[in-house]
Design brief:
single chain, mainly alpha, 14 helices
Amino acid sequence: MVLLSIDFESLHLILRNLFSDMMVKCSDMVAISKGIAGLGALFYVATRVWQSLSRAEPIDVYPLLRPFALGLCIMCFPLFLGIMNGVLSPIVVGTNQMLQAEMLNMDELQAQKNRLEYESMKRNPETAYLVDSEEWDKKMEALGLLDVPEMAGMYIERGFYDFKNWLAKVFREFLELLFNAAALVIDTLRTFFLIVLCILGPLAFAISCWDGFQSTMTQWLSKYISVYLWLPVADLFSVILARIQSNIIATEIVMLDNDPTYIPDGATAVYVVFMIIGIIGYFTIPTVANWIIAAGGMGNLGKNVNAAAVKGGAIAGGIAGAAAGNIAGRLKGGGGGGNYGSNSGNSSNKQSDGNSSGSSGPSGEKKEKPHQ
């Protein structure tokens, strides 16, 4: 239960501070990049000037300003990065505000639904003692010494109710842990990629001064913006999931208001399903961000991340489904014993078939004559 108490917000804050601290490291590459860019600018200008002189054409000065503009960006690269982040940061802030508002709305609806569900069970005399201690005490006082079987049944029923709530809580916490871990993985990869792009950014700008490598700068810009948009896309994905869960909770609230005897039983299952969808969907964020800003060379990363997401989602779904089915079958009773008997019968038949096939194998090998 230690992992369930992890404060993921503090981990995301650590990553943001790490990115801010590592941004200044890009100045270490400025000196090397200025030399590479200066040499590239010399060949760039000289080639075009000699081409114009050999053709007896006037020299076009405007294209020759490109390496000087790149050199200015290299010398002031921390300022250039600050301007880019200042332009892109409002997108992150806006999507985060949408997420916080949606999560607040969902928490309010969940609290309202829990209150209505408690009141609905308390109004029902058959279930009031399960949620209210006063009703439990009254019912126990009304029973006499001869009502021991009924008292035992009440204890068993209340224990089953508490165990069901505990099991639902464990499932929710486990899937929430996986969901937050998936978000942390995406944020960690995003931070690492942005740090690498920031530190090696001056070198990319310097190489783009050379003929044949002019697209290096545009590729760097597209990759930086695409990776930077991973966090806004993740927030939007969480907003969509929170809205779906809010709509489900709102529907159950309407059912509780219209039918006083209605008790929601499938809320936990629906929550589990959408949490698994969220875990898988989080790893498609690089692909979605690549749809917004096409960054070449990110396809293999998207394929590997999506493959890992499918495996992780399958494992999470298998664990949750197997545990839920096993415990539900044992709690219902009856069905579990029959399944066990049929499974043991099948296993004994398989063992007998395996023994017969194993005995025929060696005898068949003895009948065969070795080839000379």
